[in-house]
């Protein structure tokens, strides 16, 4: 599995404001979207393109366009929804599918409560969006869902990860096709409640104001 931690002062700056417990929901939402756009630049480095002939005002030339079938973006509800606009801004022709997952706060096991995805993903590049990779349980379940539908090329984009969760995803995805994870930062650890330390708290609650 390929892991890339985007290292850029703008990302670190925005992440610092995002982490701050005094940052209100509207600012938090904007920052998640902006961070997503910055991470999308790294995450889409391998997006499939095909040659296209065009004419500039001066001469004919050849460029590229995003190849068919278009990439599929899969935000993991709820918190991943906050990243969607930041991604489609950069890849407006992509299609969007949805996976709804919730982590049981006692067992930390994820359950899938909603799914709206194409049946056959065998030739689709898939981009999974979820701000938080904590134990890794949700991301492993989401990627496995896509692999079962035939996906062979999956990139997960997360804002923060815990080292324990990242290791769990790496272990689960060993030999399972082309899986990449692009991250804004890898934090210190998970605490006993399964929260990322120092982290940013509960991303879904902070996005949607249910704290
Ligand atoms: C959060 C987060 C991830 C998951 C990460 O979602 O957005 O999906 O927890 O934890 P894990 O790596 O230990 O599985 P949550 O289940 O709280 O749902 P929400 O997005 O609706 O808030
Ligand atoms: N989910 C979150 O939203 N935050 C964490 O720190 C862990 C899981």
TrEMBL record:
Name assigned to this protein: Uracil phosphoribosyltransferase
Stated role: Catalyzes the conversion of uracil and 5-phospho-alpha-D-ribose 1-diphosphate (PRPP) to UMP and diphosphate.
A GO BP annotation: UMP salvage
Catalysed reactions listed for this entry: UMP + diphosphate = 5-phospho-alpha-D-ribose 1-diphosphate + uracil
GO MF terms, alphabetically ordered: GTP binding; magnesium ion binding; uracil phosphoribosyltransferase activity
Record keyword Isomerase present: no
UniProt cofactor note: Binds 1 Mg(2+) ion per subunit. The magnesium is bound as Mg-PRPP.
Source species of the chain: Agromyces hippuratus
